[in-house]
Amino acid sequence: MCGIVAIVGTRPVSERLVDALKRLEYRGYDSAGVATIHDGQLDRRRAEGKLFNLETKLAGDPLPGLIGIAHTRWATHGAPTENNAHPHFTDGVAVVHNGIIENFSEIKDTLIADGATFSTQTDTEVVAQLLAKLRRDGLDGREAMQAMLRSVTGAYALAVLFADTPGTILAARSGPPLAVGYGEQEMFLGSDAIALAPFTNEITYLNDGDWAVLTADGVDILDHDGNPVTRPRQVSIAAAYMVDKGNHRHFMEKEIYEQPEVISHALGHYVDFTENRVSAAASAIDFARIPSLAISACGTAYLAGLIGKYWFERYARLPVEIDVASEFRYRDIPLSPDAAALFISQSGETADTLASLRYCKDLGLTIGAVVNASESTIARSSDAVFPILAGPEIGVASTKAFTCQLAVLAALAVGAGRARGTISIEEERVLVRHLAEMPRIMASVLNAIQPKMESLARELAKCQDAIYLGRGTSFPLAMEGALKLKEISYIHAEGYAAGELKHGPIALIDENMPVIVIAPHDRFFEKTISNMQEVAARGGRIIFITDERGAAASKLETMSTIVLPNVDELIAPMIFSLPIQLLAYHTAVFMGTDVDQPRNLAKSVTVE
Ligand code: M6R
Fold this sequence. Notes:
Blueprint: E1 3-8, H1 14-22, E2 31-38, E3 41-48, H2 51-60, E4 67-73, E5 88-90, E6 93-101, H3 104-113, H4 125-136, H5 141-151, E7 154-162, E8 169-174, E9 179-182, E10 187-190, H6 193-196, E11 202-205, E12 211-215, E13 218-222, E14 234-235, H7 251-257, H8 259-270, E15 271-272, E16 277-278, E17 293-297, H9 299-316, E18 320-324, H10 325-328, E19 340-345, H11 351-363, E20 366-371, H12 377-380, E21 384-387, H13 400-420, H14 425-460, E22 465-470, H15 474-489, E23 492-497, E24 514-519, H16 525-537, E25 541-547, H17 548-553, E26 560-564, H18 572-591
Parallel strand pairs: 17-18, 17-19, 19-20, 20-21, 22-23, 22-24, 24-25, 25-26
Antiparallel strand pairs: 1-4, 1-10, 2-3, 2-4, 5-6, 6-7, 7-8, 8-12, 9-10, 9-11, 11-14, 12-13, 15-16
Helix pairs in contact: 1-2, 3-4, 4-5, 8-13, 8-14, 9-13, 9-15, 13-14, 14-18, 15-18
5-amino-5-deoxy-1-O-phosphono-D-mannitol binds next to helix 9 and helix 15.
């Protein structure tokens, strides 16, 4: 959620810290701050809003110092004001924090009873106040850190400065990720390897429960009990992924148009196109032997999983239990240890997804991760990793990660079908040929529909609400369309199974309600058309997304019909994702919202 970066070395740090924060802004962007030690004192600059405000402040009032910690915030406790922005200072202690201190209120009461005065509404301030108290009680920096970590519960990544040890950064991790980077006479700390990429590609990820002491000469890593531990030093590939918007107005637009290329990379990993067979990479889980599959994820990744469920059940006859991770982990689902579980996540750091993974791991299930960030905690905690190879996705609204997740799930489901003997070699070949066609079809669809989606978006931008309908795999896609529209345009939108319309949502239909119907000419088509009739009869304004056969078969009058090429049912969800992404994108552009960093959201959600 929040992003942390820190440097200790022999050169000024504040400008470099802010540059590194820019690469972490996807984690949160409601306020930011940086603290250094110079002339034996802690000093800081903080600003509400985007990083630009902090940069402006620093330009007018520079911050010297060879050691510093910095933070970009996604508010949990306390409004996104400058006063609540990190770093928090108390009595010679500076703290930045990502996560939630769950027992903050109890610690705060004790500290207040002891005479402390709090100046922010954040949970983080208890860490600073507690450390300051422990130092006043006579503990040195390391001892205070160890004692503080024994007192706090919850999820945290922390970086701490003490004014009286101006060459040392203390750091701790329980939950949200933290990476230590190695330089020449300099050490770095960051929420991820991308933040550190311009400084170093040699990194060590702290394990859960670890804490660390960084000086310019190196790092000591300790476990929760304070015992020295060694964690692997690895070469990160993050530097290869430094990105910009190219000729596009927004990262989201760029990422939409990258899809044909990245999907072809993703497929290349799972499919042997010369033989038209699914390759060994898709069999890192022994699908033939498992009795069932559990899938869990959040947001868009969950909707990809829901489409995956249709495929695993249809092609591999494999029963799938799926739920959003925040429910899954608490449901007490009767899961067999012989089963496997797939966790889908672009960032690989989503707290609820990770908690569901650990829950399944404790039950003894085989764990698979469908992730974009292959160095992430979810990837590192899994038995089998299925990278989606989408490249960095910067726009908060997920687009290319979604279709790459789908492409990988489609390949896994076909591979599982082969392994379980529920599809023949010839059927596998046909399905793989359909997958192989996908990048080319996506490129031509993107090219063909763009002007139409833009002019439709002009109309949609005038609406207050929208309904998306679909059946089969188009039902999760309808939910994804609604999620995409609401998160970036702030128009209220809901996605429903088309058959559910008459059980309640139909009450919302009138001449002001746009209804986006996603209906390829598949085995559900006629039924969806009947639901469309019900909308038309009540004056609803239908935006009909179909294929050539569907357009020819439907005689209904619509506000607009988007006609895509006829494609096989397996690849339809990826192709039909394109108009819903473009519709949301252009609507948001017309509304003038912050498309890449919509309000209240963050790209990586590392709190429950
Ligand atoms: O990084 P993850 O894939 O685990 O993130 C899950 C969701 O937070 C994410 O898909 C979210 O719903 C997106 N903003 C949707 O566009």
